[in-house]
Design brief:
By secondary structure, this protein is mainly β. It contains one helix and 31 strands.
Length: 345
């Protein structure tokens, strides 16, 4: 672990520079709040674009020269611990854990989608189809909830999907992966993704091949609606929106929004379409919108107004955790990480 300002001072003294994003010098520790949109700031944007954070922590993700590694996006739990996607040829689903101050933790294999929790990261075990929780040391805790896919709940926990030849089971799990409520639906289904709406309704995304369909599930009433067409995609993700509804990403692009109980899809809002991901920030009053590439995080109000942006110089991509911590990547294969603690809390 080291302070990012010290790191860049060494690079400049040696004739180097930060890679990408206008980096270099001490700028990496002083991100800028973006300018307000043309025409002024909407009333619901007041106070949402944060003051620039002053200090970043930097650390390198340890690598093995015999098994070259490329570092991808990061995720951060509510305790501030970090999981970094770090696939290699021999471990294509590898993650590495780090403490809140960049202390090196453990290594574990998990799916590409991890859902951060109060403590730890939730996913599906690659070896056994159960909801699983990993901590930053790499320790794994299997729950008793079967799952081939798990998606985000609106609060803590997740939504697990499992299927056999005759049924689909949709289960809400708590932050430890233990089942709270479930519904089993008769029929042949292939689970793809899921998310829980702000009001508690669950959208289960299912399919056959690349065909994607949706079905709304009411866990409280133990009931479900009719399935409806969503689109065609090999990769599917879903995220709840702050004001209600679930955004659906098909093959890397946020394309549509589904509202609870409604089979009529709406286009994804303009602020969302070209992003890699988004997450609730600023005490749940805004979205932090992460770009596919680059170092600018957009700030959008819960009502959908673009409020501005925050630039994190010296890095080439950024991820935002559920605690508001921002993790940026730079260096060889993206394996040098800069961490701005609670920058978007």
């Amino acid at each position: 672990m080291r302070w990012a300002g010290w790191l860049l001072a060494v690079w400049v003294a040696c004739g180097g520079s930060g890679s990408g994003g206008g980096g270099g010098g001490s700028e990496v520790v002083t991100p800028d709040g973006g300018a307000p949109p043309d025409g002024g700031v909407a009333a619901d944007c007041a106070g949402l674009v944060p003051a620039p954070p002053r200090t970043a922590i930097a650390f390198d993700v340890p690598s093995n020269a015999n098994d070259p590694m490329t570092c991808g996006p990061s995720t951060v739990d509510a305790a501030g611990t970090i999981a970094v996607s770090a696939p290699t040829a021999s471990h294509p689903m590898q993650w590495k854990g780090f403490g809140a101050n960049g202390e090196t933790g453990g290594t574990f294999d998990a799916p590409s989608l991890l859902i951060p929790q109060t403590k730890g990261f939730m996913g599906v075990s690659g070896q056994m189809s159960f909801v699983t929780l990993w901590d930053w040391y790499g320790s794994r805790a299997l729950s008793g909830t079967a799952a081939t896919s798990v998606g985000p709940a609106f609060d803590s926990g997740g939504i697990a999907l499992s299927a056999d030849s005759t049924s689909l089971t949709v289960t809400k799990v708590d932050a430890a992966g233990d089942g709270i409520a479930s519904v089993t639906l008769p029929g042949a289904f292939e689970p793809r993704a899921a998310a829980q709406d702000a009001a508690g309704a669950v959208l289960a995304l299912i399919g056959s091949g690349t065909t994607v369909s949706g079905i709304w599930v009411d866990l409280g009433k133990q009931s479900a609606g009719q399935s409806f067409a969503v689109g065609i995609a090999s990769a599917v993700r879903a995220r709840p929106l702050l004001g209600g509804g679930v955004a659906i990403q098909l093959d890397g692009r946020w394309t549509v929004v589904a509202q609870p109980g409604d089979s009529t899809l709406r286009p994804a809002p303009a602020w969302l379409a070209d992003s890699r991901d988004f997450i609730g920030a600023r005490a749940g009053q805004a979205y932090a919108v992460m770009p596919k590439t680059g170092n600018t995080v957009g700030i959008v109000s819960a009502q959908g107004n673009s409020c501005g942006s925050v630039i994190f110089p010296g890095v080439t991509d950024v991820s935002v955790g559920i605690d508001g911590t921002v993790v940026g990547s730079t260096g060889t294969a993206g394996c040098t990480k800069y961490v701005w603690r609670n920058a978007l809390r």
